[in-house]
Amino acid sequence: MEWMTSALCAREDPELFFPVTATGPALREELAAKRICLRCPVLRPCLTWAIDSGQAYGVWGGTNAEQRAVLRQKAGSSAPAHLTSAEPRFSSAEPRSAAPSDAPSNPAPPPAD
Fold first, then answer.
1. Using an 8 Å Cβ cutoff, are 41 and 6 in contact?
2. 59-83 tens-digit pLDDT
3. Which residue, among 39, 63, 42, 33, has the nearest Cα to 51 in the 3D structure?
4. Is the dihedral angle over the CA atoms 46, 52, 53, 54 positive or is it negative?
5. Which of 66, 48, 64 is nearest to 4 (CA)?
6. For residues 71 and 73, what is the distance between their CA atoms, to the nearest angstrom?
7. Residue-by-residue DSSP string for 19-82
8. pTM higher than 0.85, yes or no?
9. Which of 24, 45, 50, 109 could pair with 60 in a Cys bridge, judged by C-beta atoms 3.0 to 4.6 Å apart?
């Protein structure tokens, strides 16, 4: 996991990436963490590692736990090859509910017709 030494989050307060709740100020913290991820040179390996290792908490690779669960489900086997094309996308819409369908971003690409 050499990529971790290049991660921008390594220079930030870790609590920003692990909000305690899914409401109120924690939503702003999550959005702030995701903005850091967008500038990070190791976003893809971070996201792949988080999905492969089953990270159930926090912001990893620009996604929250619910978004990673959707990516795992869409990937089926959670194979890294499926994840390398997944680019997290974000909007600044706030507030949002904790439900994945209301999330401000959808890291999975739209389904092909």
1. yes
2. 999 999 999 999 998 887 544 444 4
3. 63
4. positive
5. 48
6. 5
7. -SSSSTHHHHHHHHHHHHHHH-TTHHHHHHHHHHTT--SS-BTTB-HHHHHHHHHHHSS--HHH
8. no
9. 50
